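Cont'd.
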Amino acid sequence: MALIHDLVFQGAQMLLVLALAPLLTGFVRKVKARLLRRRGPPLIQPYRDLARLLRKDVVLADNASWLFRVVPYLVFAAVWIAASLVPTFRTGLLFSWTADLIALIALLGSARFFLALAGMDAGTGFGGIGASREVMIASLAEPAMMMIVFAIALIAGSTQLSTMAAFMNSPEVGLRVSLGLGLIALVIVAIAENARIPVDNPATHLELTMVHEAMVLEYSGRHLALIELGAFLKLLLYVSLIACLFAPWGLAPATGGAEHIAIGVVAYAAKLAACGFLLALFETAIAKMRVFRVPQFLGAALMLALLATLLRFVSRSF
Amino acid sequence: MVIDSLIAVAALLLLAPAGIALARSPLGRPAIYGASLALSLGLTAIGIVSLLGTHDSAATLPLGLPWLGARVRIDALSAFFLIVVNAGAAATSLFAFGYGRHEEAPARVLPFYPAYLAGMNLVLLSADAFSFLVSWEFMSLASWALVIAHHHVRENLRAGYVYLLMAAFGTLALMFAFGLLAGTDGHYAFADMRAAPPSAAFAAVVLVLALIGAGSKAGLVPLHAWLPLAHPAAPSHVSALMSGVMTKVAIYGFIRIVFDLAGPPAWWWSMPVITAGAVTAAMGVLYALMQRDLKRVLAYSTIENIGIVFVALGLALAFKANAMPFAAALAMTAALLHVLNHSLFKSLLFCGAGAVLSATGERDLEKLGGLIHRMPQTAFVFLVGCVAISALPPLNGFVSEWLTFQAILVSPQLASWGLNLMIPAAGALLALSAALAAACFVRVYGTVFLGRPRSEAARHAHEVERVSVVAMGLLAAACLLLGILPGYAIDALTPVTQLVAGGRMPVQAAEAWLSIVPIAESRSSYNGLLVFVFMAASGMIAAFTIHRLASNRIRRSAIWDCGFPDASPLTQYSADGFAQPIRRVFGTVVFGARERGEMPPPGSTEPARFSATVRDPIWDALYAPLAGLVAATTQTLNILQFLTIRRYLSLVFAALVLLLLVLAAWP
């Protein structure tokens, strides 16, 4: 019985992230447009885009290989699994022990690996430039993320997300310097990983400023829909991650009843809205960087996270 | 058991003269590689039985030093490495069935190949310093002969020369290490050394010497200089053995000396090991990203992986010295599992490089491309190898990397400031090298197999022989199996960790759903099987739903490329271009990378030129001055060649007096 109960919640989580991800992106776009005093597309525009893309034919380059056609499904699968293992409204997910936070980051790494390969498949200049810059950004963002995980794992005594979230929700956490450093670093990494301003511009189609968009330039139809959905899911994943580690308030415990879950859902929706609003505000307030300024931006994240980890290693109270 | 393995090794040795005899006949290749395959499989079986049976077996042969004999022994440690060496050897022998057909000088490969296998096995079986060193040197020389198999290429001769020098230097260091372990009474048997460990000061010297001796064979920075020259020079199936397997024999040597023979470790021993490992990992992968030669990229990536293993070994030393047997077992398991994993995927990748080489005759990344269409099977297995080596789930490379990170997360419990500052830095370097490794293999796979062909040779490539593909396929299957069912491998390693780390990990096979749980489930766990099943299932569900409910039509058309499709494949991103951002971010500091663009004056029709230079800091700072010093010294000593007999005699006398004085002063 308990197993079925947990299974239901795990399934609900998987469907919830899938259903909410386009909405979050639509919300961020809407807020950005309003901040620029435009009306902006309706909130459900990303769903409409996806539905339209799914119905369209796929136009494949003549020399595209089977890898190019498999990658969208692989990327979507990896990101979806990763997203469904981050606690959203309730801890104690059934499959949380399948992949801890380190494995989760590596799953996202797999998605990026294949996407970069797909970028090089058609053999174009744009695909190459996108893939090359993407791996350069990842080569800094990924170690920074790993150091953040180390810092938080050393505080929580676990790399298991459910355990970490439960610990962060307990009163023993308190205010810590290393957590503060970790939060700043995590936000920087999240911005870079999701190809947001100032690292990359998700709305641009001006060739030389693109990273992510250049990499997926050759994709069309249902393949593009899956890659877009993967990108939406990744944004949701990072927001959920930040929320469950640094703002775990309202998260329903594994044993909680219906009222806890109701609180958890409402709190989660509020956190998504807050993070989405802050992201939109940040993106409107700042300009995009030159590509070779990005390493400095990400290097700062790496150093902050390393500092946080070092603090944990030398003293237990920071 | 040990007698059976000796018979197999003797048979391998006998194959060497048979190789000379059969080199010219068409039967030679199948006979030698077939016999090598059978014997390697037999030795793998012996290793598995010994490891699972956990009983040691030893013997003394009436060979070698008269008062000592040649002692041989299989314990858990050598049994594990027997499996690693011979599983890799079996796969490369199978690969060579097909690949050997393209060999232009079989007489230079066939005799040395089985001898080289025998040498590696003998190192693992030896249980005294004398036979260990003799086998070690035999292994080095056999592989040297294979490195210069294509001796008409000047580059290969240079590689062979540098290799020979470094191998001799490494053996010298090991010889001193064993000398210190044996003491003045000459206890050369490992059992005697174990019974009487050296004093703390001597043990420290032994550690440094083992790090130099085994590290130079394994490719630790800065002793790696020979490796990227020698490994690519050999025929590809031998490169696979050298990179995938022989570096593991070096690691065996290090574990044997430092963990088994040198007595209980001091607290600081781990520091040089972790430092060397972390620096090696980061430098190795950065070097790999700067290379254009496919096999050299793979050789540098071997250096990176050796670094990862040494970091894990250093952690195991630290835990062992701090009486944390459980954590030591965790770190040791991570190291050994990475040894096994790396031997599998690096053999696979080198065989793949061999397949590409035999299909196109090219090793230059800038002249390849689009091979996924011409060599689909090789492309698939090579992709598996690339994913595995980039430490991505659900394949095996990720498991050992994950265990290493888990070991790092236990280390704040160590009571040492130095280590507490060093280990997070080493962890950051490991994470950095993992991310860069992924970049490196996106670059390799993207330029070799994807895109459009960059040369005629690549345009007309053909798939390699079926048997070679099968060999690579088996290695790829092993990578997947170890990735999704790592628990069994971890359990099988228990006797080894008991022996060298003094502890064991919890039994993994008992965990629900075949997860791996190093400490406790609430702390950390990973389940490769479920990740694999979930990925496959959700990918397929997505594909099925979309094809069923939305659209499944495909139209082929020209490349879009933002509306500027160019027919020339030269407009693709090149391998150098791909690495340019990373070269700019990391290379300017590490390699002094400089870029120079020359624009022609306005009105001129000359082309603009761009050049990038990368310097090897270690060669410039260490090897070049050293070579200069040696040259200067020999120049000075040259006068000794032209002395009178009187002076020679007085020199001999002076040396004798000096030696006697040393002996008199010896405590």
